[in-house]
Amino acid sequence: MRGRKVTFWLKAGQALALAVAVCFTLGATSPESRFTNLNHKLMCTCSCAEILGECNHVGCTFSTEELALLSTGLDAGSSDSVILDSFVAKYGAVVLAAPTKQGFDLVAWIAPFAVFAAALLGTILLIKHWSASRPQTEPQMAIPEMDAMRERIRRETDEDGGFEQ
After folding, report:
1. What single string gives the DSSP state of each residue in 41-72?
2. What predicted TM-score, i.e. pTM, was given to this entire model?
């Protein structure tokens, strides 16, 4: 009986995973989704610092021209890398929304993590240095005047919190 339940849930999980995979891949190769995917990998060259597909300047001729060029490349059946390379050849590397993952551009991906790691290491070393150079305090010796003051405070604030009723 227990083996049947496990088998049932295992098959149900596999069916669910298959259904999710099918749902995520539907439309993944459609021209509209490919167009959207590519125009989100490119920047508009009108100096608005917007993604090409989201340039919101009214009458922006740059985005209109670039989107038409993108459509032409898709209609010609060019691959994504060929289309992106043609944009880089025409407008320069600044047209890419993200730096490439090769050559010197790799620094743009590595540098933020390296700076964070160096800052974290520096902070840890600084805290260790501060704690090592701090003089060790000895336990406070009992001073009779302090003991008398503590006892007086304790008596005055004992049961009623120091307030007279």
Report:
1. SBB-SSSS--BGGG---TT-HHHHHHHHHHHH
2. 0.49
